[in-house]
Amino acid sequence: MKRSQALDVMRGLAILMVLWWHYQPEKPAISDFLIYPTRLFWSGVDMFFVLSGFLIAGILLQNVDKKNYFSVFYIRRGARILPLYLALCFIFYLLLRFDPESFYKTYKNHLPFWSYLTFAQNFFYAARQRFADPWMDVTWSLAVEEQFYIFLSLLIYTTRKKYLYIVAVILILLAPVLRSYSDYMTSYILPFHRVDSLMFGLLLALAWRSDDIKEFLKKHTAVFKWTCFIFFIGAAYLTYLQKPCGDAFTHSWLALFYSNVLLLALFSDPIARWSIFKNRILEWFGLRSYGIYLLHKPIQLVFLFLSRWLKINLNPWAMIAIMVIALCMISEITYRFIEKPFWDLGHKFKYVDS
């Protein structure tokens, strides 16, 4: 699929939400005025899931009739995901081998290393009822997406398009039911407990490939602006209630909200000058969002270790500024010299007609 600036802007918004959630200073360095409006910023991952569902489903629907459907899809996904991820795993392995206790005190509770190599870490976290390995813990969402890629590629290959709508709706309804009968950790990080966000993406991808539905949606773009406002008010109320991640209803509401935002992004005016979906800064963050997501916790841990080792006591906001600058610089390097070269290499493999 062609790159979309509007969708890159959505990625930028999502990654900035995640960054704020993990980088915000503790009290008293931060006031309640800044904390309370951002209590749902953990849901940047939900926005990523909706986007991923839409984009991956679109790729699979477009190429399901190709004779090398599976091989090219997995090669391209591997080229996109694995190089930087395996580099992170390798550094983590070295940390475990060379005196990790001095680096981070929870190393003794780390998961089996093979769980990260097989993208099974989310099941291990759920079984242990807590996150382990701060260097790697954000990769639970990557594991969910990899599991989703396998499931969705098989689903689209074996299911007629008209039945995909039914399957998507069933799974969307199933997810909050599973969450309501599960503990917090299981509800938050297991694939079928989070499948509603991904399935909303699939529904949008199906709609986008139907000329009639697409034209209908385009004619009613103004309606989606109002429904987006309604979903935003609902999200604000959930923020006021301080709903935690893993809540049965909250993820479904946010999935609807972010799906609505995605529709507005898809139909955004390409020549509009002041649309948020034309923001170059957010686009920059969106293009590098994968590297930023994988690296932001390791960089945070390195700076915390250095500050303790060197006995430097910086103002929390100064520390955040330094970490963000370092993160942006390193993410730019990994984007140019790891992500994009392998990404281009993966796209040398072409789908071939049956």
What would a concise description of this structure say?
This protein has 354 residues and is mostly helical.
Task: Record the SSE blueprint.
Blueprint: H1 5-23, H2 32-35, H3 44-63, H4 69-97, H5 113-117, H6 121-128, H7 140-158, H8 161-180, H9 184-189, H10 195-208, H11 211-219, H12 221-240, H13 250-266, H14 280-287, H15 289-309, H16 316-346
Helix pairs in contact: 1-3, 1-14, 1-15, 3-7, 3-10, 3-13, 4-16, 8-10, 10-13, 12-13, 15-16
What features would you describe in this structure?
The protein has one domain (5-346). Helix content is 71%, strand content 0%. It has helices at 5-23, 32-35, 44-63, 69-97, 113-117, 121-128, 140-158, 161-180, 184-189, 195-208, 211-219, 221-240, 250-266, 280-287, 289-309, 316-346. The relative contact order is 0.17.
Task: State the domain count.
Answer: 1
Mean pLDDT: 92
Strand count, sense and barrel status of the largest sheet are: none
- Which radius of gyration do the C-alpha atoms yield? 20 Å
Q: Estimate the global geometry from the Cα principal axes.
A: globular
What separation lies between the terminal Cα atoms?
20 Å
Number of helices: 16
Structural class: mainly alpha
Q: Count the E strands.
A: 0
